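#help-structures
NK: newbie question, is this the right format to request a structure? protein is Amino-acid N-acetyltransferase
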Amino acid sequence: MAESPFIVRRARTADVPWIQSLAAPLVAQRILLGKENVSVYEAVQEFRIVEDSHGTPIGCGALHVMWQDLGEVRTLAVDDAWLGKGVGHAILLHLEKDARKLGLSRLFCLTFEVDFFTRHGFTEVSDEIIAPEVYAELARSNDEGVAEFLDLARVKPNTLGNTRMLRLL
C-alpha cells in the first residue's frame, strides 16, 4: 500500500488562524457560515486538520455533536491546490470514526457540495429529521450552526440554496 501524501490529526489552538484563513473565501462566497475567532477556539477540539508530507495544513473539518444520536459535519474545507486529491475524503472518514466513538448514529450536513457528500453515503433529507421535542430543545441553543440546522429565519441569508443531507452510520 502506498504511503499517503498527507496525515489527519486533531486540531490545536495554533491552527485556528489557519482554519479561519482557509474558510474566509468560502465565507465570503456564502458557502460556509462565518464564525468569530472565539467560536473556533471554543470548538477547536471538534476539528481535524490534514497536513501534507511537509507538515503544511491543507484541509480541515469539524464534527459537532447536536443531540444524543446526531452530529453535524462542519467547516469541511480543502486548500484549492489539493482539491480532488482525497483530502476531503480523509477528513470525512476521520469525522465519521469520531462520530461512531461518540455513539452517534446519524451525521448531518448543510452543503452546496451535494455530489461529494452523496459519494460518501449522504442523502438529501427534508427539514423534519428530528422529533418536535428535540427541535424545541435545540432551539434553545445559541450556536449559529444549530440555528442553520433548524432552518431558523435569522440564518436564512446564509442557507439559501444549501442542501440538507444525512448519513446513517
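mod (FA): yep, format's fine, and the C-alpha cells are attached above. The chain has one domain: 6-168.
NK: thank you!
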